[in-house]
Each structure stands twice: as C-alpha cells, then as structure tokens.
Design brief:
Length: 393
C-alpha cells in the first residue's frame, strides 16, 4: 500500500466516523498484522516462534463517551453494533461476529479497572480478513491500545498483548497461543520477534528487507480460523504431551521433548498423535536454525527452513490444503525464491515466499498463472515490509 492509499484509507475512516456519529473522532490508533517465518503451531505447545509485524494492519478512530453506550462500525464489515454496557455478553456470541474482539477487550478493561464507559469506534484496515495475517489480533491490540490511552492505564506492550490474548482465549474461545497478539504488540521496524512462548520472553532479531523480499500469496480459500480444527490440534498436542509425561519424563511443555523421547513413547501413542508431536519437536529445531540463519544474513538457509516447515505442517500436522501446497510449490519452482510456507494457522488463507530483492512481483506473476490454471482463481499477491508496533497516529 502506498502512502497515498494509506492516507485515503485514513480519510475514509474519519469520514465514516463523522457520518455515523456526527463529529470527528478524538483519536486514531494503528496495530499491525503479522506473518510467521517459522514456528508453526508452537506457541500453544510452549515452543518458540519467529513472527514479523508487517506494514499493514488495523486502524481505529475512537472517541470515549460520557455514557455507557458502545457503537462499533467497520469499513469492511456489514454488521454494525450499538449496545449499552449492560448488554455486553459475558462471553463472545456468534451473532456479534467481528465485534466480539472489541467487546472482549472492553470487557477485559472493565474487569481489570472497573471502568465501563462507552466508546464510539470505527475500524478500517489494509489486511485481508481471515487470511492468516492476524487481522483479529490486530483488532484486539489496536482496541487495547486505544482503551489504555483513554483510560490512562499505562499498560506496557506486553501487558496489552496478554490482555488481547485473554480476549481470544477466554472471550472468543479460540485456544490459540500468544504469538499473534505479541507479534502485533511488540513489532519493531527492521526486526522479527523471537518469542519464547513458555516464558514468555522475547528478543528482536534483525531482518534485512534489502536482502530479502516477503511475498504474501493469498489463495483466497476461505479460512474462518476453523475453531474446531484448530482446537482439535490443541487437544491432540495436550494428549501427546500427557503420554510423554507418563511414559518418558515429566517436562512442562510438548516443545521441550526431543525425538528420542518421542520414539520411547511411540508404542503408547497412536500414529496421528505421534506425527503431531513430531511436527512440534522438529519445528523447534527449525526455529534454532532459522535464527542462526537470520543472524548470519543467510536468507537461502532461512528459506530452506521455511520449506521444511511447510512440509512438516502439511504431512505431520495436516493443516495445509491443496491450494496452499500448490501455491508454495509453484513459488519454490521460481528463480530467486529462497523458500515458501503457509502462514498463520493454515486450512486456507495465505502463504509467504522469501524472494531475492527485486524479483517478488515477477515471481507473483508466474505463480499466479500456475494457480489460476489449477484452480480457476486469481490468487492475490503483495510485497510486505517489516512494520512497526502499535501506535497512536
Ligand atoms: C493462529 C493462532 C496462533 C498460532 C498460529 C499457528 O494464528 O492464533 O496462536 O497458534 O495459528 O502457528
């Protein structure tokens, strides 16, 4: 997105706010989406992840009200919501759709601070929704930042991330790990986040955008973060962990075991659980190699880790799909591509490819042709840059 396009988006959000609520918004905030380089499905297994906040995300125009009315509008969603504090459900409800994210954050602030004032909020963004780039975490984080600013609670970025994560787990009911909210809240220009989810602890590792382009490839295959499939994987990993604890040794997280442990427990676990655990354990090795490669500026090696990660998520973890396999294979077949993998939870949505500088859009053109031939669908392509963390505009 160019500077002009971004300005147009901000103008559209302000104009909508004025039209809906009859006054200009008091303040505006932004929080980024993310891609994950390596570390698929490791966060809820106490492992490490390597996400990058991108230069796209969610904006909110906000005014705090004197009463307890809450009005929520989004440029991208048909449903708008107008309710009073007393009507905010204690848990997310399907009928509220996207609004469950801001309502969950509102709820989180109310239970922490006792404050229950109303807000007028208009959201807009430049992330494709439900595509694996964490639009929901960006909504949570940007709303938390806005409430923190209005209420002057003084939460730091990690506290905002944890609050946002509780919304997803406790309010929306997705048993995800902390990666998306941390990636959005702790984004830093020129860096990816190496997050040790068990702590949580983190450090930022440099990513040199002048040596490696990040091409995002949207299969357009809908992927409501299929709560059921996702929560199934979480449950399978919990069972595999329990088996390892009972049969081999007692370690706090599934990601802490090694392949020898897994072999030792193999007769006590069915083949599916074995593969789920093998993905988690081998993916931890790819994180280590990925970080070494990043520090050495070796993007070819980082790309190999992405390829291996995709294979493991497809074969052992089974969260890929034909569209994601075809699009990543087609990317790997192009000159100048370091590696490719699905990003986010999988089941559809987006993949990423790391590409030599200057070649990204040419790769996109070739991959687009292959994908259209195979599925009759025009995949979406875009170059992403490392973004900032959340900010007030
Ligand atoms: C989704 C979840 C994250 C993480 C990824 C898979 O994005 O929200 O917590 O589990 O899937 O790596």
């Amino acid at each position: 997105m160019t500077g002009t396009e971004r300005q147009q988006l901000l103008d559209a959000i302000r104009a909508r706010f004025l039209r809906e609520f009859g006054a200009a918004p008091a303040r505006m905030f932004f929080a980024p989406g993310r891609i994950n380089l390596v570390g698929a499905h490791l966060d809820y297994n106490g492992g490490d992840v390597l996400p990058m906040a991108v230069d796209r995300g969610v904006y909110v125009a906000a005014t705090m009200r004197d009463d307890d009315r809450i009005r929520l509008v989004s440029l991208d969603q048909k449903s708008a919501h107008d309710l009073t504090a007393g009507k905010v459900p204690p848990r997310g409800e399907p009928s509220y759709g996207w609004a469950n994210y801001p309502l969950g954050v509102w709820h989180g602030f109310r239970s922490r601070t006792g404050r229950a004032r109303g807000f007028d909020l208009v959201y807009g963004g430049d992330l494709p929704m439900a595509s694996g780039l964490s639009s929901s975490a960006a909504i949570e984080v940007v709303t938390a930042l806005a409430f923190d600013a209005f209420y002057k609670t003084g939460y730091d970025r990690q506290q905002l991330a944890l609050l946002a994560h509780r919304v997803e787990n406790g309010y929306v009911g997705l048993r995800c790990g902390i990666m998306d909210q941390f990636a959005s809240a702790l984004g830093k220009p020129g860096h990816v986040l190496w997050l040790h989810c068990a702590g949580p602890r983190y450090e930022h590792v440099p990513f040199d955008g002048s040596r490696c382009e990040v091409l995002v490839m949207d299969t357009k295959k809908p992927r409501s973060l299929s709560k059921t499939h996702f929560n199934d994987r979480v449950a399978q990993c919990a069972t595999a962990h329990e088996t390892l604890r009972n049969h081999v040794r007692d370690l706090p997280h599934l990601a802490d075991y090694d392949l020898a442990d897994l072999e030792a427990a193999s007769s006590a676990m069915d083949e599916v659980l074995f593969r789920r655990a093998r993905h988690v354990i081998t993916e931890m090795g790819r994180i280590q190699k990925g970080v070494v490669a990043l520090r050495a500026g070796d993007y070819a090696e980082l790309g190999r880790q992405l390829d291996a990660s995709h294979r493991s998520t497809a074969v052992d973890y089974e969260v890929s799909c034909r569209e994601l396999d075809v699009i990543t294979d087609a990317a790997r077949a192009q000159k100048g591509v370091f590696g490719a993998r699905l990003t986010g939870a999988g089941f559809g949505g987006c993949a990423i490819a790391l590409v030599e500088p200057g070649l990204g859009m040419r790769v996109a053109e070739q991959v687009g042709k292959v994908f259209a031939r195979e599925f009759g669908v025009n995949a979406g392509f875009d170059l992403l840059r490392v973004g900032t963390g959340p900010v007030e505009l």
